[in-house]
């Protein structure tokens, strides 16, 4: 099955993930609208997408003409109701709060084209709950991308209780058209990757809190000992510790004590040390680059 390149895709949320997903659709040939109520977020997202494309040109991965065509296919909007009108796909990437996600899809549903697919990029919340308040829950599916979207090949497709076979087949075809590899997950808290990553990152923070090793050494152990491309503390800084804490709290509530958030994560979030996006998490960052030797040590806690 192939997806018509004339089908309009709306991405809601111009944060890190929404930016990457919008770039992925536009660069794969689909007319794409990125929606956010914050004009600064939209401007920043468009600049970041332009940089991804220009870097691709510089590396010889895409032509200048292809990059320009991708940008031309990308529009931005501050009005979800206007952007969603007649769209064939809606992918929401707003904050990991169930009520916020439900409000977004409920607002968009009556405006979309008949048979449109509604996808949620949630990493832990229930697709079934998000879909339950809609008139057509069978067209809702989880479409969990990974950061950075333009480099990461995997997409987890999550079947809620009502998700139809047609929605799954069409969404898998869309992943194929983007050059992504998709896996199918029957809905479960944390899916596959978020559940494993949250547990690993949480344990790494407990080790740091207890003084087992420095942040740099914990990350080095995972990179060199298990061939991970990035250590769990580096990954937490990239993802954002506020997002990681939200996921851990949900998993703790649904799956039990082994997912109880490390107190150090709670302390860091309260202090605004969220990671790369604030310039300070487990490590410090200067213009997006990690400052060598800046990792937290037990003596500083």
Quick description:
The chain has twelve helices and ten strands.
Mind explaining what this structure looks like?
It is built from 12 helices and 10 strands. With 301 residues, the chain is of the alpha/beta class. Strands 3-2-1-4-5-6-7-8 form an 8-stranded mixed sheet, with helices on both faces. A two-stranded antiparallel ribbon has the order 9-10. Strand 4, helix 5 and strand 5 form a beta-alpha-beta unit. The N and C termini lie far apart (54 Å). The mean pLDDT is 94. This is 3-hydroxybutyryl-CoA dehydrogenase. It is an enzyme of class 1 (oxidoreductase). It comes from Metapseudomonas furukawaii.
Give the helices and strands, then pairings.
Layout: E1 9-12, H1 16-27, E2 32-35, H2 39-58, H3 64-72, E3 74-77, H4 80-84, E4 89-92, H5 98-108, E5 117-120, H6 127-132, E6 140-144, E7 154-159, H7 165-177, E8 181-186, H8 193-210, H9 215-225, H10 232-239, H11 241-255, H12 263-270, E9 285-286, E10 289-290
Parallel strand pairs: 1-2, 1-4, 2-3, 4-5, 5-6, 7-8
Antiparallel strand pairs: 6-7, 9-10
Helix pairs in contact: 1-2, 2-3, 8-10, 8-11, 11-12
Structural category:
alpha/beta
Mean pLDDT: 94
> Unreliable runs, pLDDT <50, ≥5 residues?
none
Overall geometric form = globular
Largest beta sheet: what is the strand line-up? 3-2-1-4-5-6-7-8
Q: What is the CA-CA span between the terminal residues?
A: 54 Å
**Count of DSSP strands:** 10
List the defining traits of the structure above.
two-stranded antiparallel sheet; 10 strands; 14% strand; NAD(P)-bd_dom_sf
